[in-house]
Amino acid sequence: MYLLSRIFLFLTKSADQRDRERDDAYLAEATDIYDLEYRMKKLDQRSFKRQPSWMSS
What we know:
This protein is mostly helical.
């Protein structure tokens, strides 16, 4: 039953929600403020790369 509820939750969440939760968990693993800043910068760079080419002008 637990597995079915997890599958249902996975299917009902949008891709943006899953990405946000994954990013939040990644940031929560930071060991200090410098690590947190590094991780935030890394996520910002990744999100910049994900934009379509016509948006980067």
